[in-house]
Amino acid sequence: MKPICDSDMIINIGPQSPALYGSMKLAIKLNGEIIKSVESVIGYNHRGIEKLAESLTYLQYLPVVNKIDYLSGFMYMEAYCSAVEKLCDINVPERAQYIRVMLMELNRISSHLFYLGVYLSDLGSKAQFYFAFTLRDEILHILQDICGQKIMQNYFVFGGVKHDLDLNALNKICDFCSSFSQKVKELENLIIDNPAFKARTKGLGIITKNKALSYSLTGANLRSAGINLDIRKIKPYLVYDALEFQVPIDDSGDCFSRCLLRIREMIESLKIIRQCSRFLIKSSGEYKNNDVNPLQIHPQSNTVISHVESPRGIISCTIISDGSDKPSRVKWRTPSLYSIQILPELLKNRYYSDITAIVGSLDIVVSEADR
Amino acid sequence: MSILLKPIDTIYNWARANSLTPLIFAASCCSSEILSLSAYDNNNIICFDNDVTLGNPRNADLLIVAGAITHKNAPVLLRLYEQMPEQKYVIAMGSCACSGGVFRHNSYTVLGGADKIIPVDIYLTGCPPEPRALQKAISKLKDKIMAETISMRTKYLDSHTTDFVLSENQEILNSVNKQREE
Amino acid sequence: METEYSQFNILNKQTTKCGIEKITVDKCCFKKFISHLKNSAEFEANILYSVMACDTSDCIELNYNLFSEKLNRYLIITVLTDRNNPVCDTVTDLYKSAAFDEREIFDMFGVFFEGHKNLTRLLMPNSSVGNPLLKDYNFQKERSVHYETDL
Predict the structure, then answer these.
(1) Percent of chain A residues topping a pLDDT of 70
(2) Sheet with strand A302-310: strands edge to edge
């Protein structure tokens, strides 16, 4: 059948859209239903967080760090706190390290549940959205009892955590672990046995090994292409070298395997939480380094980098100090910026209806890319 | 005259207050709280589920501005507001949309709140506000709508003044910048 | 490994506080050095984590964060450019992830990268003037914004 019209059409999926995860623009050139080229425009959410650090002291900058990515606030706090602790030679006691690891893994589970709920509801199944979000709500209530707020908790300080965990909170976490381990198996079976989900995502958006390394993807996007790179295993920080867990890898590199890997990561995070809570129930110790005076941080001229594995990839925080009480330059390397870069190549010569499946599987948070 | 208009007012206000269709302008962090609300909204105050009209300004009455507004995002917000038909109401959700929040003084791109551009009806502060606080804000908006009269609304909109200028014309922008430098 | 590096003009070599090596290279041959590190069988720096710029008072410093999966080692390559007229070579033909990084440095610091295919502003609006992350950026709150018609 001859095509009716041969010229290209440009469509904007604009800065305000319920289909995209934040304020981002995709200008798509279409020929019929097939995408010819995509151009992405970001910067609608650029709040100037790196410049803000030059006019605030080290302690005043700490609450701002939570707000870079609203889904993984603990990871950003850990990256900033450990960079400042390396700069000033501050020791973190062991109990505080276990508390930090446990809360970061809870944060990882809640972020993956958010991703699952939104991704599955965009692909059409509304029931999974409610299922995932009620599970996420249980975690947020536990965090509210411990830290005082549901998201953007502001709980880590230089040298430890703000206050100690008591037995009540630890019992709630253990109850949550035992109830969640059955529900996550249900979630996994939902995806593996679902022919509609497989037809929409299998074989789509394939990322090969060389492409993934060249675009410097990290996290589950890289591990689904077959490369085993997890900062928690190769360069362990805090107490990850004393904990037993595995890192799930897959070979196919398509949207289906990215979604499945994130569910498997949730199962591994549960193992870590159980080991940490066992240690915390038995042990007793300091939760904060009491020799630190956070109002008097005047480090010498140095450069430090710290790396943390977040649900989306690898975060790194670089601080350059110059002897005063304010940093001279703070640089954040965020993983979503590099996931947005690979979109034009993945969407080329695909159908228009494949956009939600491919864009959603990469787990992009635009306020993290814009900083 | 106003006694004659009172039953008409009541019917109009009752119809408007109980059928609010939202348009969500989700710029940053507070958008996750709106999604959490739609997941456990057991009072059904607002209809988030309607897939046909979600995200379309031509069908919406209520604009929820959630998150920090930057220089690049300001024309987008103004254009969305202009595309909505009358009567329209605006809720500014979160500290950044109310007054700039953490970024007010030291950031070079964040505006000091959404009311520099559009008139706002309800200010909901918090960083981020609890999802049930958004339910309470919507019920306060309903009380406000029920107490309106037809002539009062235009006076309220006219009283919104701002010294922020959005214009296509480069000469107007240059003259505003020169005035500010003096 | 030390003798091979003498053919590139290495100006300085130091170790930062967290144990990562930082090598300062001359601007004219840093690209050959990076491509040598990428293709060499023993170092094989196959991931470029990020490109970072920093404004010191005499010059603008560019830092390339490389990681070698084989040796499990980080490495930072530093290049200094002139502050008044900053120009540098692009590395987008070696690592594709540098495209957005270099656009952001052009936006924030004003460094011009030769050979980059699409060097435009990334985070600030197209009609803005000045480079925000320089230390002498005029920091006044704007009171007007261009209402752009092609959104």
Answers:
(1) 98
(2) A302-310, A313-321, A329-333
CA dihedral sign of residues A121, A123, A125, A131: negative
Q: Mind listing the pLDDT tens digit for each residue in A80-116?
A: 999 999 988 888 999 999 999 999 999 999 999 999 9
* Average pLDDT for A119-124: 85
Chain B, window 31-70: residues with a beta carbon less than 8 angstroms from a chain A beta carbon = 31-33, 35-36, 39-40, 49, 54-55, 67-68, 70
**Residues near A230 by beta carbon (within 8 Å), at least 6 away in sequence:** A223, A247, A309
* Fold observed for domain A48-370: Cytochrome-c3 Hydrogenase; chain B (1.10.645)
CA distance C58 to chain B (A): 24
Tokens of C42: 């023993």
What is the average pLDDT score of chain A? 89
Cα B94 to Cα B67: distance, rounded to the nearest angstrom = 6
Phi/psi-derived region of residue B92, left when phi > 0, alpha when psi is between -120 and 50, beta in every other case: beta
Of all residues in chain B, the one with the smallest CA distance to C151 is B76
Examine the predicted complex and report whether its ipTM is higher than 0.90. no
Instruction: Say how many domains are in chain B.
Output: 1
pLDDT tens, C42-78?
777 788 888 999 988 888 889 999 988 888 888 888 8
**Is C128 in Cβ contact with B176 (below 8 Å)?**
no
Class of residue A323 by CB neighbours under 10 A (exposed 0-12, middle 13-18, buried 19+): exposed
Measured CA to CA, the distance from residue A304 to residue A88 in angstroms comes to: 10
CATH of the domain at B141: 3.40.50.12280
Could you please state the CATH topology (level 3) that the domain comprising C4-86 is classified under. Beta Polymerase; domain 2 (3.30.460)
Chains in touch with C (≥3 Cβ pairs < 8 A): A, B
Of C50, C65, C97, the CB nearest to A341: C97
pLDDT tens track for A241-257: 999 999 999 888 889 99
CB contact under 8 A, C143 and B165: yes
